[in-house]
Amino acid sequence: MTDSNNREPEENKKIRQLEKFYRENEGKPMTTDESVKISDDENTLSAGDRGPQLLEDFIYREKLSHFDRERIPERNVHARGYGAHGIFECYESQADLTDAHFLQEAGRKTPTFVRFSQVAGSRGANETLRDVRGFATKFYTEEGNFDLVGNNIPIFFIQDGIKFPDLIHALKPEPNNEIPQGQTAHDTFWDFIGSNEESAAMMMWIMSDRTIPRSFRMIQGFGVHTFRLVNKEGVSHFCKFHWRPTLGMHSLIWDESQKIGGADPDFHRRDLWENIEKGNFPEYELGIQVIREDQEFDFDFDILDATKLWPEELIPLKKIGKMTLNKNVENVFAETEQVALHPGNIVRGIDFTNDPLLQGRLFSYADTQFYRVGSNFKQIPINCPIHTAHNNHRDGAARYVIDKGQVAYHQNYLADNTPYTVPGDKGGFVTYPSLVEGKKVRKTAPSFEDHFSQAKLFWNSMSDVEKSHILQAFSFELGKVKTPEVRERVIRNIAHISRPLAVSVAEQVGVPAPPEDIQESDVTASSPALSMKNTIFSPDTLKVGVIIDEQYDSNALEAARASWKKAGLEPVFVSSKLGTLKGTGGDTISVDDTFLTGSPLLYDGLFVVGGPYATRDFHFMANQFIVDQFNHYKPIGGIDEGAEWIKEIHLQDRPGVLTSKSPNEGFYKAFVNAMAKQRFWDR
Ligand code: HDD
């Protein structure tokens, strides 16, 4: 099987398994579901030309009744998402830490399926809204499925799963008017945040640029919880899982994210789908942070508290493998919508801890899949393991595995007591025998009570630009809150983290400064790993909008294109109309976007070539694109007429704006470097 570029995807057992379920309809006769050939699919059977329709029309009935059942309940969070298949490759054996089969050997490859998502919006929500992004991975290992159901933020809003319905009810559109769609900028959400100090650190993270990512290909992922790795000898270590994109972590700016919602509400799925189709396969390295059992109480935070991260400067991140997403789905409903991820899906060598949020999740996910996908959801092709499951589970709606034989119970004589259980020393799953003691209680552990130290650590770690974006984000979000008391309560929580920030936000949203007696956290440490400023910067796969008209300078364009190709930059040719343009050398290019169908919002940088016969309208539209691009701090290059137009509006020589009437290699190199830098905040 090949992808649309005729490249052979890497050996992938899961895809081989799915292929057995593919149905090719092209070129085939149309039949009913019972395989009766259909002679007319457009007219219902009626009594006479104008007569009533007949109930006996099984073709009509089957078509409509199937249509009537096409939708299943959408996920009540993370409803809008997009998936892709991939391969995970282990860098080196982790056998000293874990017995997990997929981590035993350097070079071992494991098929994966990833679903990226946004939390709040319904299935049709605009994709660039400010929101946490889900990053959920199913590893189809040789020894069963392991699901790492994470987000692009390393911590969470709450500490105990029992509060999850409250959080989500506050976050979702308000129930009396179902407004607003997919966003946090409303009263109930901020009421929840202001009323729950444990959300303070997460509040800072969601106001940062991480919640308006540039691309799913450029987000980090986190398992969030503390898991256990258990080796063959039964020795356990605590562990956190991270995904790191090799393209670095990049974001939109607020103005862009709002407007892209109009220009392309499918911005993220389009980006992922197109890049995988083109062979620009996104890659993410899997990292682990590990601490020994005896270090459990060595930190000034509780390692079981999901509102806390493990600073990398304290507990370094070790990269142990890489996942490459190299195949789009064949059918979004069958694969992405029906995939059932569940943090409770673990394999031998990995185990849970007593993190109360994780424990809460262990119930909710399987439960929601039974409701959403049905009692046999684990048999659906995208969910089933690569090796056949054998057990005594039977029946239920839509069961399509046909279990042979007389016996469906354990402890039997008739089938020699099979399927048989496998002892731990022969590869069976054994739960890590962690020590449990104490009285049954309903209360928060005292070690979970510090809510502001890590929020302050995060704030201390931000660059000036990041800090200004956080201030802007709070000003927008709280500015949309109608109830002044709700705004005030949030500002009090901010004051525990940074008084100056709280005062500035209060000023912006028209409420009094927080009371003087609020104690600001005295944490002075920072963690450089938390700042997006310290990410990887690369021009690879970034889009350059090229504004170009008839009789463009062929030589200059050829040189520019050669430099872009070398750097992995992808030109998108923009002109006044679709079709083909001719250059001075007689060569042609075909236009990808017009000023109408394209938008400066959709390109990471702009390169203005123009042409000697450009009309006033063309010139005017080019200027609009240049100004928008400039306002979004993105790189701009200009040659020929393009260089003149940029000069006319006095933008030449501003940071990240490069123009030349006689471009040479140095100029093209400088433009590529500017593209890699991505934003010029000092404009
Ligand atoms: Fe959750 C879906 C991530 C806490 C209950 N969650 C869901 C998805 C992701 C996360 C990525 C979408 C999976 C997919 O693509 O199908 N959730 C998280 C993270 C959490 C978290 C990183 C905190 C560390 N979630 C959480 C709690 C509960 C849930 C505490 C309930 C106790 N989450 C659900 C759910 C969903 C879900 C209601 C909705 C659809 C689904 O499970 O499959 O059960």
Automatic annotation (TrEMBL):
InterPro entries, alphabetized: Catalase (IPR018028), Catalase_AS (IPR024708), Catalase_clade2 (IPR024712), Catalase_clade2_helical (IPR043156), Catalase_core (IPR011614), Catalase_haem_BS (IPR002226), Catalase_immune_responsive (IPR010582), Catalase_large_C (IPR041399)
EC number: 1.11.1.6
SMART domains reported in the protein's UniProt record: Catalase
SUPFAM superfamilies the record matches: Class I glutamine amidotransferase-like, Heme-dependent catalase-like
Cofactor: heme
Stretches the record annotates as Disordered: 1-50
Pfam families in the cross-refs: Catalase (PF00199), Catalase-rel (PF06628), Catalase_C (PF18011)
Claim: rRNA processing is one of the keywords in the record: no
Keywords, in A-Z order: Heme, Hydrogen peroxide, Iron, Metal-binding, Oxidoreductase, Peroxidase
Oxidoreductase among keywords: yes
Domain Catalase core: 31-418
Domain of life: Bacteria
Catalytic activity: 2 H2O2 = O2 + 2 H2O
Biased segments, Basic and acidic residues type: 1-27
Alphabetical list of Gene3D superfamilies matching this protein: 1.20.1370.20, 3.40.50.880, Catalase core domain
Stated family: Belongs to the catalase family. HPII subfamily.
Function field: Decomposes hydrogen peroxide into water and oxygen; serves to protect cells from the toxic effects of hydrogen peroxide.
Protein name: Catalase
